[in-house]
Every structure is written in C-alpha cells, then in structure tokens.
Amino acid sequence: QVQLVESGGGLVQPGGSLRLSCAASGFTISNCAMTWYRQAPGKERELVAGINSDGSTNYADSTKGRFTISRDKRKNTVYLQMNSLKPEDTAVYYCNARFVLEAYWGQGTQVTVSS
Predict the structure, then answer these.
(1) Looking at residue 112, what is its pLDDT?
(2) What is the pLDDT of residues 78-106, one digit of tens each?
(3) What gap in Å lies between CA 65 and CA 31, rounded to an integer?
(4) What's the pLDDT score for residue 61?
(5) Which ranges in 40-106 belong to alpha helices (H)?
(6) What is the DSSP string of 80-96?
C-alpha cells in the first residue's frame, strides 16, 4: 500500500528556515518522480520543487535559490529545505509521487510564515 507522510511544518518568522520531510512506504522513491506542491488559501495548488528518478531536480521560479529538494534512498524519504522564507510561502505543502499511470498524495503539512 502506497503511503506518503509529510512532517516538519510549523510557524516560522520571515527569513527563517524549515525542513519538510515526506516519508514514503509501499514503493521506492527512486523509481518515480517525487514532487512538493503547495496550496495557499483561495489559490490553486502549485508546484514547488521536484526530483526525478534520475536525481535531476526542478523548481518553481518563486522558490529557486531558496528551496532545495533532496532524497535519502536509505530512508525512502524526500526532503524540502526551505530557507529565507517569506509570508507568501504560507501554504499547506503536499508531497506527490508520480508513476506512469498513477499518482499519490500525502495529507499535507501546514507552513505559516509570519512575525
């Protein structure tokens, strides 16, 4: 059974950092594309950062240079290191695993950037 469990969200001041984790089970993360998305209130869900099966990464323009996606194959976990956080980064962050014919989502973790 495929399962994705996000953790690491919370309240942080502008300019601060957080590291999100996405623990996967039921499959191997290096066999698919793993992506972080976020959804702010009243807005559509948007891509934040992704890591492909070959290890290549991609980022949204708004997060490039501030966020870093990585994976630990031994722990079967994907991370999102978020630095220089801004109030506009406030959202629920979701982990996504995409295969050829299907995709899976985690339950999300709330990130709030506020002073």
Answers:
(1) 98
(2) 999 999 999 999 999 999 999 989 999 99
(3) 26
(4) 97
(5) none
(6) EEE-S--GGG-EEEEEE
